[in-house]
């Protein structure tokens, strides 16, 4: 991939010309949320670009959708399907390339450049999609194994269904927020003395507030109710990917989750990164998923090997004092189930996925100590201190802590990444 | 309540003048879905009524919402809040009363009557709300107890948390359909030999397709993320109620649900009745909930006794041969948790509820054999035949079976009910 003429694109930027992720911005000149892509430390405002008189010729696939980049979400664009996303991304790459075949449109058009190419710090990011339903899976093998071993011992670590199907549950769509949104510590029913019988809950702020490092996947083309998506067609239903932090209150979850699963322990907040990396941008980074020793049911068999992506992931914790510690470095290659498998399973019984629906991978952890994507694992079930810069320690999150997830693939100058998925913990509001 | 001048209002109609439930219809004259109310065997088309020149004077609260009854959902109307719903319902009751103070508007205006009062069989019903998130609770005490006893014996029937909090989980919004929509039997992973170890699943149509008789509650006024709704204010956030059938594939559910709860066993379809009975219409039918012997956490304490409604509920099964059997007669009084308690618990950690969100009560069953709201209970875990008319039997649903739920309160001529919540089972589509 050639270089870009856009200034200030560092070789370390996750937003190289090889990426072109889509997001929703507002700017001083255009305060209504609308569509842009990220390039280096800048954005290209596609609403402004679409005011260019030859826009229809430039993007013939969008001719019938004149306001598509003035929308406040990417749903209409996502629903156009992968061939259109591919063509639009490719045209934008050409426009931004140092060797563009159309320099008159943007590169040499200083007026339009001034209006359409804006520094990221001058724009505000918004939730990129209107999310109908959010489903969270449990496909991170080492996470499922390690957490299972903590509670049930290594012999019974994995539940019997784990290697047969991608276990998942329905999450809460209304509390999904864009990176940067502060996260208020939730109140909930918790058991302060786990040895007492009968159990005696109290209503209090969670004392075991945790993160879950995940990859999120947005649906483009919907399926009709009653019509499953074949695993071999599932890629056509994927718009793109984000980083996802599924904030979790472990003490609330422990008390509430039998027998119907997590509820208030999860539904207070989920943070996603603002830029959606298109499925095509991650294609060069395919890798093998975690080996599954169980013969697959036919509907889960993709008939090929490189079904997931090898994205380098990291989690940083910044204390209220400003000391930052990298608490986790891992990779999205530690998934045992691919997103096509999750989609095929999700729709097997006929469940309709809609444009903008979000699937979470489940917590991603690697096999070793520094690769664990939750405090529950890092602190070995809350029994061990995690050492931080500034002579501080944590087992779970404190008020004022800031968590930042990043994820990136590729070589310097051609990196494909997500930017930050970040949130700071606010103290609980005194109740009622 | 006085009688209505509308013809063909049987004393047994659930849609007496005391009700005035809201729904979304389309009609030959107005094929785009829009708002109506039900009265007897007729509807009053509110889009047509709003063409009346004095509409603004008639409904002063709606003056700033001129297109509100032309909307394809009730969300905008719901968001106006309970005082507006009360005023609008009361004005409609006056218009339709035999002793109306405004006979010139509708009663004696034969032209408008002809256009606005339509037989129900001439209109098509649509999903009444755009549903952001759907949450299903487990508040039916006898259901939770009986199902728990089936699996764990009577001593351990209720989980330790059951009497401390309204247990619930996130459901699937995309597969909620309006009454009358056919339900395709889902494929899924099922264990055909439960005694085999290790477990060996196969992919097949569910053999244990079931119903769940529930009451559904729609949210009107949203709460901000991070701001819980007090239990004593929760009524102000309720728009109204529907009947709900949470179709369930027990064999799929049994294999998948550990540890994160039901997923494909539930997400293939949920049916709701088309007419939303406003909260005010049910006020006269308040009753005490099931006694809870556990001291309540403060945030769940309503400080009053009559927190739920005594709605008579019944479930009919019609076989493909056309034989109909009433398989369940029970009451919504068998809930241990009220909807205000569910709302207070749901938002305790800050989870935002949005206009149009749907809460399910969980399966409603009474204490005796004929009062059980699921086949799982009626057939004692699939071990006993349920006797039907026509010398037929069931343990779970067969293809071609039609299930119809009805619910009603009140005396003849003043009944407040829901009409039918019905769906017929279609055979599974051969897979892939």
Characterise this structure:
Two copies of one chain form a homodimer. Chain A is an alpha+beta fold and 432 residues long. Helix content of chain A is 16%, strand content 25%. Chain A has two domains: 22-126, Fumarylacetoacetase, N-terminal domain (SH3 type barrels), CATH 2.30.30; 134-426, Fumarylacetoacetase-like, C-terminal domain (Fumarylacetoacetate hydrolase, domain 2). Chain A has helices at 46-49, 55-58, 75-78, 82-96, 110-116, 141-152, 250-256, 279-282, 339-346, 375-378; strands spanning 22-26, 34-39, 42-45, 117-119, 124-126, 134-137, 168-170, 176-178, 183-184, 187-191, 201-205, 209-210, 213-219, 238-245, 248-249, 270-272, 277-278, 286-287, 308-309, 312-318, 324-331, 358-360, 386-387, 393-394, 402-409, 416-417, 421-426. In chain A, the strands form seven sheets. In chain A, strands 6, 7, 8, 13, 14, 16, 17 and 22 form an eight-stranded mixed β-sheet that branches. In chain A, strands 9, 20, 21, 25, 26 and 27 form a six-stranded mixed β-sheet that branches. A five-stranded antiparallel β-sheet of chain A has the order 4-3-2-1-5. Chain A starts with 21 loop residues before the first strand and ends in a 6-residue tail after the last strand. In chain A, 54% of the residues are buried.
Secondary structure: elements and pairs:
2 copies of one chain form a homodimer.
Chain A (H helix, E strand, L loop, with lengths): L21 E5 L7 E6 L2 E4 H4 L5 H4 L16 H4 L3 H15 L13 H7 E3 L4 E3 L7 E4 L3 H12 L15 E3 L5 E3 L4 E2 L2 E5 L9 E5 L3 E2 L2 E7 L18 E8 L2 E2 H7 L13 E3 L4 E2 H4 L3 E2 L20 E2 L2 E7 L5 E8 L7 H8 L11 E3 L14 H4 L7 E2 L5 E2 L7 E8 L6 E2 L3 E6 L6
Parallel strand pairs in A: 6-22, 8-16, 9-27
Antiparallel strand pairs in A: 1-2, 1-5, 2-3, 3-4, 6-7, 10-11, 12-15, 13-14, 13-22, 14-16, 14-17, 18-19, 20-21, 20-25, 23-24, 25-26, 25-27
